[in-house]
Amino acid sequence: MSHPGFAAILKKIETEKEKFDAISKEVWRNPELRFEERHAHNLLADALEQEGFKVQRHYILPTAFRAEYPPDRSSERQVQVAVLCEYDALPAIGHACGHNLIAESSLAAGFAIKAALETDPSIKGKVIVIGTPAEEGGGGKNILIEGGAFINIDVALMAHPSPTDHLFPPFIGYKNLTVDYKGKAAHASGYPWEGINALDAVVACYNSLAFLRQQIKPTNRIHAIITKGGVIEGIIPEEAQMKIVFRAANLEDLKSLQEKVIACIFAAATSTGCEVMYNINERSYEHLLTNKELANTYKKHAEAMGVVFQDGDHRIIPFMASTDMGNVSHIVPSIHPTFSINTSAPNHSKAFTEAAGATAAQTPTLNAAKALALTGLEVLQSTELLNAVKRQFEEDIIAENIGSS
């Protein structure tokens, strides 16, 4: 680490760690659902402005932002490293996925890369901190992609808290849909033969999905909830609704699983005599393409701080979920490693919410921030590394296209 920027990164994060912790705790204490993250948006934007970033508030989305340093609009093409913040929470259980810590680690990384750039004005590069709302099912990054947020971005960096440290976490593709069954109301006791039970259709579909789960690949997932099942017990339900999520490790498997899920939906309609309509959310999540060159750079720095990655240990089950960072990774070389926050609690649980606000989460969060920042600085100062990252990205995209053809 001979470049003075490396020392500047470590010093900046250590010097400002109380500020980063305070911001994280403030986000954690005030959980906001997708597209409603006004307090977090203002809190993070204020901090970046105070640090000397040029901030665009309400960037494309009302609760997104874009912060750049240096703030000039030079006509000369510069290398642009983006670090992405998330800060939306979950209904009822708050920051059970630790997005307050994602916001903290990316904010700290952005501050630290800026400090490194200030030590060497000869680096023709820029750090961009992007606030990305609504990761929890809203596809905020998808909307930002559509709005042009990642044009000219060279790499995108982010890390995610979990019970384990994984360099290549298997974030898989994701689609969700709503299903609406229509039947016919009738007196449930007096004239049941006159009714068509929409609740039976939902239950039949749910059970079919449960049976299907036994026959799918280990990297596939299906989840469902019933959102409407009737009005009163004495009336045969004439309308019932459900929501379904299905996930797979690649596009081919996702398409195959979708066909099977839809077959379950229509089979339930046929067996009960109901009409059915379904709607697939167009903003699906793609599986994550972790850039190996970026990941190995991050690994080098994280391991120097004592992190032990568990990718090769098959006894450790990785955090298998889905993220709209997957969509970013298909257009920009990206990494999205997970970092342990000293808990065995699973994400999306009340216990993980508590862990995300605990003091024990701070050291691993700031270590992740340091590794992200050091990775970003290496990209900014090394044309050789950037070219290797881009070659790896092109190879990955070609392989993806061949696999899905």
Characterise the protein shown here.
- The protein has helices at residues 4-15, 17-29, 38-50, 99-119, 140-146, 198-213, 251-272, 292-304, 325-329, 350-356, 362-381, 383-404, and strands at 54-57, 65-69, 79-85, 125-131, 155-157, 160-162, 173-182, 221-228, 239-248, 275-280, 334-335, 338-340.
- The chain has 2 domains: 4-171 and 288-404, Aminopeptidase (3-Layer(aba) Sandwich), CATH 3.40.630; 173-280, Alpha-Beta Plaits (2-Layer Sandwich).
- The model has no long low-confidence stretch (mean pLDDT 95).
- With 405 residues, the chain is of the alpha/beta class.
- Strands 1-2-4-3-5-11 form a 6-stranded mixed beta sheet.
- The radius of gyration is 23 Å and the shape is elongated.
- Helix content is 42%, strand content 17%.
Physical arrangement of strands within the biggest beta sheet: 1-2-4-3-5-11
| CATH fold category name of the largest domain | Aminopeptidase
Strand content: 15-25%
- How many E strands? 12
The number of distinct structural domains comes to 2
Distance between the termini: 44 Å
List low-confidence stretches: none
- Indicate the overall shape: elongated
CATH class value of the largest domain: Alpha Beta
CATH homologous superfamily title of the largest domain: Zn peptidases
Order of helices and strands: HHHEEEHEHEEEHEEHEHHEEHHH
Write the CATH architecture name of the largest domain.
Answer: 3-Layer(aba) Sandwich
Largest beta sheet, briefly? 6 strands, mixed
Mean pLDDT across the residues is: 95
Total number of helical segments?
Answer: 12
Helical percentage: 40-55%
As a whole number of angstroms, the C-alpha radius of gyration is 23 Å
Structure classification: alpha/beta
